[in-house]
């Protein structure tokens, strides 16, 4: 059942993004940024936690999950370090994902020689 919930949750998030692409004038970059901001806001309000409990990886892997982890990290760091946690908490909580994205992006660039399509 966990796999089905993850599939449904991730599918719903992707379907919302596709509807936004098809029905609005928003660019994909703005939609992606909106997903991160929505994850931060929903995480800060405590609304995204039940979605994570139900959807598992379907909720934590998309960009809304990245925003949720930012909010969760800031909240934890503020509790431990006070207001200094506002500046450090989000980066500490998401450092592994950011480092992996940079590393794998670099490896793919080395392997496949990216460039402009002409």
UniProtKB/TrEMBL annotation:
User: What single Pfam family name could you report for this chain, choosing any that match?
Assistant: SpoVAC_SpoVAEB
* Residue ranges crossing the lipid bilayer per the database entry: 29-48, 83-112
Q: Which UniProt keywords apply?
A: Membrane, Transmembrane, Transmembrane helix
The keyword Transmembrane is annotated on this UniProt entry:
yes
Q: Which PANTHER family match?
A: STAGE V SPORULATION PROTEIN AC-RELATED (PTHR38450), STAGE V SPORULATION PROTEIN AEB (PTHR38450:SF2)
Matching NCBIfam families: spore_V_AE
Q: What is this protein called?
A: Stage V sporulation protein AE
What organism is this sequence from?
Oscillibacter hominis
């Amino acid at each position: 059942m966990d796999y089905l919930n993850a599939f449904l949750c991730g599918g719903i998030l992707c379907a919302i993004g596709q509807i936004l692409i098809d029905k609005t004038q928003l660019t994909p970059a703005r939609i992606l940024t909106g997903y991160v901001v929505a994850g931060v806001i929903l995480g800060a309000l405590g609304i995204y936690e039940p979605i994570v409990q139900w959807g598992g990886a379907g909720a934590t892997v998309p960009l809304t999950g990245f925003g949720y982890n930012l909010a969760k990290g800031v909240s934890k760091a503020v509790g431990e370090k006070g207001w200094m946690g506002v500046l450090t908490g989000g980066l500490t909580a998401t450092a592994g994902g950011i480092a992996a994205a940079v590393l794998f992006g670099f490896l793919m660039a080395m392997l496949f020689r990216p460039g402009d399509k002409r």
